[in-house]
Amino acid sequence: MDSPVTVAVLAAARAAKDAQPELARLHRGAKDQLLLAMADALVERTSEIVDANARDLAAADASGIAPGLRDRLALDPERVEKIAQQLRDAAALPDPVGEVLRGSVLDNGLELREVRVPMGVVGMVYEARPNVTVDAAGLALKAGSAVVLRGGSAALHSNTALIAVLRAVLAAHDLPSDLIVGIDEHGREGVDVLMRARGLVDVLIPRGGAGLIRRVVENSQVPVIETGTGKTHVFLDASADLAQAVDIVVNAKTQRVGVCNALETLLVHRDVAAEALPRVAAPLAEAGVRLHADERAAALLPSDLEVVPATDEDWDTEYLALELAVAVVDDLDAALVHIRAHSTGHTESILTRDVVAQQRFLAEVDSAVVMANASTRFSDGGEFGFGAEIGISTQKLHARGPMGLRELTSAKWLVVGQGHVRP
Fold it and tell me: What is the Cα 136 distance to its own chain's centre?
């Protein structure tokens, strides 16, 4: 006999699947009005959402949550407004559903068209990120799909409040509230059931730490779009504008440490390391960053800074904290070797005025997002103009990089004949 959790999660997924056809029939204007109404409702019920979040924060503080993870969990009126704005931005974007990808008329008169269509039911598994609850729901709805959300126990109260607001708007628009369902209350067992819900859930997207992502990728019977951890790198080349480089590195590391596009490893060309490292380290130290430096870097850093010797583990660690791995490398080739060995395929950036070095870096680094002279913090669906993002895919099939509306669609072929039969 199935467990109560199995019954409940499969029922939720089935309800989402049954609800989705009603959404698929909506035209763009109706979907946009729905998102705008959701944005307004979030703002109107901000105090309720923030109060629920306070309960999660209290539990997180009692458990000793890391500062970076706490920042990711926290909501305040300003952040709720930003979340609502993401919905407004998504509403302003073109609707990908129905877009003709290609088409032709065969010699026999048969008409062919390949068009974008909704995925159907999108499952999201993520950790302590209440904003993802709204981003995922909003993007899925705009792309014509229902969504099943599992946001983790750390954000249980926040996610419950957010989902309640969104479901109320659906009901007010005479749409099935089961277009958005949450399964946080069912814990880890709920995730296991969701991973087995093949036929009810069309795609599963894990977003969070390495352990969560690996668990879903390795165990899911539902097709998975893999989002990777962010072991991001910046290479400060010999020709870099050092004033510009300081601003970029500090922004990439300190603007928000608990996110996947925050800088985790800084590589510095040996020819400028003696000048560049002290200039970069001073504002990092002022911001509270502790440096994990290799021997060559440590020898060039001021003695009054907080520096610890880098270990092999540091080159593969996503800190999500005020910690930064630092190494001196001989040249661009050495930087490329280091990145190939330790990158998670998320985002890397080169700081350089050498056009040849820039082109080599952009061409040879095999990550989802590769940058030149820009902070890794720009690796974000919202910054890319997608309205929001469902995650940053580090795989190479279907979608790669920040995933917006188009990445939440599939395609089908429409064939129109006039009594055609195959000879």
Answer: 10
206 token code pair:
């894990």
Task: Round to whole Å and give the CA distance between 135 and 214.
Answer: 23
pTM of the model: 0.86
Can you read off the two tokens belonging to residue 404?
A: 């917006």
Residue whose entry in the numeric block shows the structure tokens 């008169």: 109
Nearest to 294 by CA among 282, 284, 279, 309: 309
Which residues have C-beta within 8 Å of that of residue 333, sequence separation ≥ 6? none
C-alpha distances (whole Å) from 359 to each of 245, 248, 349, 363, 367 are 18, 19, 12, 6, 15
Note every long-range contact of 357-360, with CB atoms under 8 Å and residues 24 or more positions apart, other chains counting: 357/237, 357/239, 357/332, 360/332, 360/336
Reported residue count of the chain is: 423
Chain segment 51-79, per-residue pLDDT in tens: 999 999 999 999 998 887 898 899 999 99
Report phi then psi at 371, rounded to 5.
-120, 165
Residue in 310, 359, 309 with CA at minimum distance from that of residue 338: 310
Nearest CA-CA partner of 392 in 161, 267, 193, 231: 231
Instruction: Dump pLDDT digits (tens) for 315-374.
Output: 999 999 999 999 999 999 999 999 999 999 999 999 999 999 999 999 999 999 999 999
- As a whole-number percent, the residues of the chain with pLDDT over 70 amount to 100
Radius of gyration for the chain, computed over Cα atoms and rounded to the nearest angstrom: 23
Mean pLDDT of 400-417: 94
CA distance 239 to 331: 11
